[in-house]
Design a protein that fits this description.
Length: 137
């Protein structure tokens, strides 16, 4: 029986697990940083603004579990651990870099649309449903 192609919209498809991993807030940023060079945890934390140590460690473990990165423990005291992309992670990094370039090209348009939407929402909330303007006391 031939294997069916992955369908990320099917909740039972194993590809959905991979998509969920990549949709997590910090995963793509870790992949993006490791694409340039192997890094230690503290270095990644400094380079990825806003990530807590706890979230970074959880993300690194998930990426390692899914075969995107390798963890190298140098067996030293104090502990020295370094993370590197696997072959699979490196192939993903190319896609992440394309996504980063898309974001750079489109960030102004996306922010403009967001601000326009927000302004319409504020205006809609200030307009009464019955068309009568409210006056504050």
């Amino acid at each position: 029986m031939p294997k069916s192609p992955p369908d990320i919209c099917n909740v039972e498809c194993p590809s959905r697990d991979v998509l969920e991993l990549l949709a997590e807030k910090w995963a793509l940023l870790v992949i993006f940083r490791l694409a340039h060079k192997p890094s230690r945890t503290a270095q990644l934390r400094r380079e990825i603004g806003g990530v807590s140590e706890k979230m970074l460690i959880q993300t690194l473990r998930k990426l390692e579990r899914h075969g995107m990165i390798d963890r190298f423990d140098f067996g030293e005291v104090p502990p020295r651990v370094e993370y590197r992309l696997t072959k699979t992670g490196a192939s993903l990094a190319k896609e992440v870099e394309s996504l980063e370039q898309w974001v750079a090209r489109n960030v102004d348009d996306v922010l403009k649309a967001k601000n326009s939407f927000d302004a319409r929402q504020v205006k809609a909330r200030s307009r009464p449903a019955n068309g009568v303007t409210r006056v504050s006391a």
